[in-house]
């Protein structure tokens, strides 16, 4: 029954993973004062690779201080930061596991406490509602990016992509979900622009398209993954306006650019209420690799693969609680239950 889940899979037309099990990107907050990865972070990823996960997508790595809104998260814009990740990549590769760097800019979810004097930027001038749980302060007021500034943002991602390649990562994942910078352009509930980057679906997609075109100058686009979350839970089900027409146009651009792997996140929601129903629609027009899951049981994951909806399955909190998650489910052994106290540790 588990044979397909544990089978090798060519997930990008270039590389094969030893199975279809993916460690999802999860913000942990254990970087040092220079935002470098530490020995403890190395051990954390090595344990998962040692225990047979097929693909690791790292925690979000901030592309520049101007995009930071979190305590003690890693960055990737300097050589020393790159070298700290190089050791991790080498340790993961020693176990025949693939690893991608998730590249991240928080946009209006950034905060002045973390941006080192840089402006908070977004698609909009309107602040996010609520409190930043990292510092228990209201989100700061962003400044809407000017059209002439878009290239500066793309160059930040280009630089982090170059450094990812120097570190030896198998690829990069561009974080376009969860209400962060790229999502702030895609999401018509947030994007209130009146220029070429707002209003119509075509205009709201423009920032993501140009960003990917710039990254394609640096890396084989088949080694690029994109994470989106068009349907997730935020005090109720939250979805992009015009979601299906938006997805059809967006995925046509992805396909035309040569992108071959998409990660549909449900942001800690019930899969079947959010990303699962989106994935069923996407399968009608996307023949390439689809990654998702997060909240699925092993049996549910196997069925989603067997039914042709998912190609690879992500698990998040299960990996926090169980470094040996992949081996445990292969052997049918009981999993340790996750609880929130585990967030404070690198088990």
Topology:
Elements: E1 9-10, E2 16-17, E3 21-23, H1 39-50, E4 55-62, H2 79-93, E5 98-104, E6 121-122, E7 131-132, E8 137-138, E9 143-144, H3 150-167, E10 171-175, H4 181-186, H5 201-216, E11 224-228, E12 231-233, E13 237-239, H6 243-257, E14 261-264, H7 275-282, E15 289-294, H8 298-306, E16 312-315, H9 317-321, H10 325-331
Parallel strand pairs: 3-4, 3-16, 4-5, 5-10, 6-9, 10-11, 11-14, 14-15, 15-16
Antiparallel strand pairs: 1-2, 7-8, 12-13
| CATH topology annotation | TIM Barrel
Number of domains: 1
Compressed to H and E, one letter per element, the order equals EEEHEHEEEEEHEHHEEEHEHEHEHH
* CATH class label: Alpha Beta
| Tally of helical runs | 10
> Strand content of the residues, in percent?
15-25%
Task: Show unreliable segments.
Answer: none
N→C terminal distance: 30 Å
Structural category is alpha/beta
Describe the structure.
There is one protein chain. This protein has helices at about 40-50, 80-95, 150-165, 180-185, 200-215, 245-255, 275-280, 300-305, 315-320, 325-330, and strands at about 10, 15, 20-25, 55-60, 100-105, 120, 130, 135-140, 145, 170-175, 225-230, 230-235, 235-240, 260-265, 290-295, 310-315. It has one domain: Aldolase class I (TIM Barrel). By secondary structure, it is α/β, with parallel strands linked by helices. The two termini are about 30 Å apart. An eight-stranded parallel β-barrel has the order 3-4-5-10-11-14-15-16, surrounded by four helices. The mean pLDDT is about 95. The chain is built from ten helices and 16 strands. α7 (about 275-280) links the parallel β14 and β15. Helices cover about 30% and strands about 15% of the residues.
């Amino acid at each position: 029954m588990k044979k397909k889940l544990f089978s090798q899979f060519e997930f990008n037309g270039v590389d094969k993973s030893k199975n279809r099990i993916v460690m999802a990107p999860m913000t942990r907050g254990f970087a040092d004062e220079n935002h470098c990865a530490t020995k403890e972070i190395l051990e954390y990823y090595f344990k998962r690779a040692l225990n047979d996960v097929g693909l690791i997508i790292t925690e979000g790595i901030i592309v520049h201080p101007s995009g930071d809104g979190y305590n003690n998260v890693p960055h990737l814009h300097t050589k020393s930061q790159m070298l700290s990740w190089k050791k991790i990549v080498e340790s993961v590769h020693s176990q025949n596991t693939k690893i991608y760097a998730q590249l991240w800019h928080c946009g209006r979810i950034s905060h002045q406490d973390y941006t080192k004097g840089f402006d908070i930027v977004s698609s909009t001038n309107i602040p996010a509602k609520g409190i930043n749980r990292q510092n228990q302060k209201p989100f700061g007021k962003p400044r809407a990016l000017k059209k002439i500034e878009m290239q500066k943002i793309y160059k930040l991602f280009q630089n982090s992509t170059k450094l990812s390649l120097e570190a030896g990562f198998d690829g990069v994942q561009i974080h376009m979900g969860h209400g962060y910078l790229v999502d702030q352009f895609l999401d018509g509930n947030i994007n209130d622009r009146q220029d070429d980057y707002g209003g119509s679906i075509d205009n709201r997609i423009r920032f993501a398209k140009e960003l990917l075109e710039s990254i394609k100058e640096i890396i084989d686009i088949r080694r690029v993954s994109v994470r989106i979350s068009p349907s997730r839970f935020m005090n109720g089900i939250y979805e992009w306006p015009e979601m299906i027409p938006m997805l059809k146009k967006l995925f046509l651009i992805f396909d035309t650019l040569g992108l071959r792997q998409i990660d549909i996140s449900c942001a800690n929601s019930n899969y079947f209420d959010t990303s699962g129903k989106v994935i069923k629609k996407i399968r009608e027009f996307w023949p390439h690799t689809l990654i998702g899951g997060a909240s699925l049981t092993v049996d549910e994951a196997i069925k989603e693969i067997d039914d042709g909806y998912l190609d690879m399955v992500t698990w998040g909190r299960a990996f926090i609680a169980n470094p040996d998650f992949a081996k445990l489910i292969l052997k049918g052994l009981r999993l340790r239950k996750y609880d929130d106290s585990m967030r404070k540790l690198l088990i």
